[in-house]
Amino acid sequence: MTTVAEPAQPTARSQPVRTTLPTRDADRVPAPRLGLGSLPLEQRFLTWGARLAAVAIAWVVVGRLLPVHGPAWFLVVAALANVVVLAVGTAALDHRNVAVSDRVAQWVVSTGAVVVFAALVSVIVFVIERGWPALHHLNFFTKDMTGVSATDPLDKGGILHAVLGSLIELGIASAIALPLGVGTAVFMNEVGGRLATVVRTVVEAMTALPDILAGLFIYTVWIIALGFPRSGLAAGLAITVMMLPIIARASDVVLRIVPGTLREASFALGASRWSTVWHVVLPTARPGLATALILAIARGVGETAPVMITSGNATFIHLDPTTGVMTSLPLYIFTAARSGIPLAIQRAFGTAAVLLVLVLVLFAIARALARPPSTKLSPLRRLRSAARAAVGTARTRGTRPTPSTPLAEEAL
Amino acid sequence: MNRRHLTRRASALLRVLVVVLLSLAVSSRLVGPASAEYAEIEGSGSTWAYTIVQQWIADVSAAGMQVTFNNNGSSQGRKDFANSVTDFGDSDIPYQGVDPVTHQSDSSQRPYAYLPVVAGGTAFTYHLTVAGKLVNNLRLSGETIAKIFTNQITNWNDPQITKENGGHALPSLPITPVVRSDGSGATAQFTLWLDHEYPSIWRPYNGASGLTSLYPRKGRQIAASGDDGVMNTVDSAAGNGTIGYAEYSYPLNAHYPVVYVENKAGYYVQPTQYNVAVALTKARINMQKTLPNGQPNIDYLTQELDDVYTFNDPRSYPVSSYSYMIIPTSSTDQRMNSAAKRQTLADFLSYALCTGQSKAGPYGYSPLPLNLVQAAFGQVEDLGPAATPSPVPGVNIKNPSDNLASCDNPTFVKGNLAANHLAQIAPMPLPCQKATAQPCGDDQTPPGTPAGNGAKVSTKSTGSTTTPATPTGTAPTGAPPPTAAPDPATGAVATTATAAAGATPATANAIEVSAQRSGDNRLFGAVAVAELVAIVLLPGGYVAWLRRRRGGAS
Fold it and tell me: How far apart are CA B342 and CA B68, in angstroms?
């Protein structure tokens, strides 16, 4: 938009030769545009006809002809009928083999997209639907489970203790894993050498570490050998073991795509290796590093097994991570869901919904931190600068307008 | 620009976070317990006793006690205690020294004492649908149970099961025993009973004599973690044909039926608080507090159940036992480093032994008789005044043993602490529970069955959806349920089952009707579908073929 407006300005001022507009032929009927994106009419008829036929066939087959029941079978039969009818219909309209395989391939690709999307949506909808009886009580978010027995109604007790426990444990794990992980990545990329290859192999192997081993490692070293109590800190350490290789691995990839020319330019200006890393490489890779942290947090927030071994399940709020059992969200979900008591299972689903939202919020925060500063002003700052400009014009009325603010210039 | 942006945004976020956390901290301090004399204590162990322990924990939190309990199984509970990971443990069996199967050490260098906290019956819960209805009056003798869990009886229509159920054959369905995958006190109590009563069946299967905490899973058996895991496996939609063992409270909470087990008097009984109380009057408790050489007896209060298994009272449930807490007794214990922690554990146990016992019955357990309560209170003294080697000051054991009547313990008999009131008033089984009589029907519940403490609304399907009634070919023909028969299982099961499938009695005599094979529906259905698809597709295919031929000709 700006590129169009700017060249127009000088012509308006100096007025050299005007451009002439071509005259339009009044008699000529404009030919309809060829829509490249949409299918011709008979193909569209075929698409919708096949869908209708598929639903009809599925309705007849499932539960009426075959002894199978349920919406899942209905969908499977409908999908199969759809692709078969589509293939035969295309063959009837257009006898080329390539047309048939084209339609079938198109169907497979678009159905795959629908399946993936439906899986995601169904998880979210299912969790929220099953958890809704618990979720719509305010006390679910503001209370803990102190004094609440497993069969008490849902207007008693809540999961505040698990939310706080999860946040504290994740905070500890992130605070340890982020500097270590990014440091490892910097070492592998910027320092290099033979050791870097070894480190890279170890990091890649650690990515596949089963989470229960991370828990057992902390349990044997921190709790049994060193004799520290089971605590939120121990759980945070176990999560750190899980997060560290993910951060290191993802940061490694991100640092690798920082253009070498930037580093060379920095060295050419006389910067040391350290200041190049600190002032050039890391700031350039910031959005990617945030993504690495997101990935690691997403992995860490759902860890159940290591937390179960290293912390434990409390029913009350516990804010001191160094001593005492601290509950986290996945652990609470696990204990409530395994109890087999219907009310506890509803609480577990409600907690799962909270966990989903928590992950979403953490993602949003990390994205906001990582976003490269945009060229557009935020609404607040735009308002502020407009106010400043208005004050400026009021103060300098009658004199030369301040050229620095485009708003003021336009106002003239 | 870049960095200024980042730091500004980060600091704003940080400020918000700090404010939120601070306000939460303040509010939690406000709602949190105000009592300063208590400190947080941790325990772990038996899932068998977990249902009632969890309730006690919820109850004492009103007094400001913060107790956590991790239901990771008796074996892990004993190990956690020995490793000083927990403040107390809960185990259904004592330390075994060396595990007979795995040869792992199962002992504690940390000084400890046992005290019984609750009694209960190891129930056999099962999932068996006939014509879409949950069977809830299954009767099995101990021998049949032993053979089922050693893979000698593998089908529900086995003649031995049919004979024990008054000649009513169950449908032909493979039996899937559900056992415990983790080291478990329930497994230990069950296999101890098997080893004692049916050694010729159990020992060849196990390959060794004696009990084991880790069940040797073989064949079709499924292993699940925890009593709750066993229960969830049995009552899952895919659980038709399963049978598992768990404490009675779990099927009670899940509204699932339990097996009537035959006792030595020839009656089929369930593990109600009365039947367990009757059986445990024959438990031999080790009452020798000090050994002849003056050393304290570490096995003080442990149980010897041989006479329980063979007790010939018609009300006795054979697989009954006590569950034990393990508490530290050393005055220099590494974890019990403050009087507040000792006080918390002592008060928690005092509550459990006194008022807590009145809750046992409704939750599927049986309360302790008062002589055991009194002895257990004596063990609690080890936390403070009687700790070794020197007493710990500042721990005040509120021992109500002088006035145990105030505990509201339903076993209380005036003037005789060793007597169990529940065993005295235990109702006699119904005539239909006798081995020679026809099994009980659906419309009556054996006396003494608790209503269950669970949620009033059961959202669990009773399994009626798993087996579509018609195509299986098994039909509930056969004789109508015997005589006047009361039924089993928890009252709640009966109601949900009835609601699900009308009034047909569950004692269905399933007969394979050869005229209607289940394969037929499938075959004819498939043919009809093929015809339908052909009708829809053939014209299109024909047009395509014609056009192709014409296209090829031109």
Answer: 15
Q: Hey, is B359 helix, strand or coil?
A: helix
Tell me what ipTM this predicted complex has. Answer: 0.70
* Count of H-run helices and E-run strands, chain A: 18, 0
In this prediction, residue B34 has a pLDDT band, given cuts at 50, 70 and 90, of very low
Label each residue of B160-192 as H, E or C: HHHHHCCCCCCCCCECEEEEECCCCHHHHHHHH
* Nearest 10 degrees: Cα torsion A24, A26, A27, A33: 60
C-alpha distance from B487 to closest chain A C-alpha (Å): 24
Residue B33 buriedness (CB in 10 A; 0-12 / 13-18 / 19+):
middle
- Taking contacts as CB-CB distances below 8 angstroms, the residues of chain B near A315 are 57-58, 61, 68
Widest CA span of chain A, in angstroms?
94
Residue A227, amino acid: G
| DSSP symbol at A316 | S
Confidence at residue B121, expressed as pLDDT on a 0 to 100 scale: 93
CA Rg, chain A, in Å? 31
In the structure encoding, which two tokens stand for residue B34, read together? 């105000």
- Say which of A150, A227, A283 has its CB closest to residue B54: A150
Tokens standing for B129? Answer: 């649908």
- CB-count exposure of residue A108 (10 Å: 0-12, 13-18, 19+): exposed
Q: Minimal Cα distance from B10: which residue of A?
A: A369
Instruction: Point out the residues of chain A with pLDDT beneath 70.
Output: 1-15, 30, 32-37, 369-370, 372-377, 394-412
More confident residue, B509 or B277: B277
Instruction: Choose among B54, B57, B532: nearest Cβ to A60.
Output: B532
* A57, A164, A340: residue with CB nearest B24: A164
The two tokens of residue A20 are 């002439």
**How many residues make up chain A in this entry?**
412
Which of B127, B465, B529 should one mutate to test binding to chain A, selecting the residue with the greatest count of A CBs within 10 A?
A: B529
Mean pLDDT value across chain B? 79
A230 to B42: CB separation less than 8 angstroms, yes or no:
yes
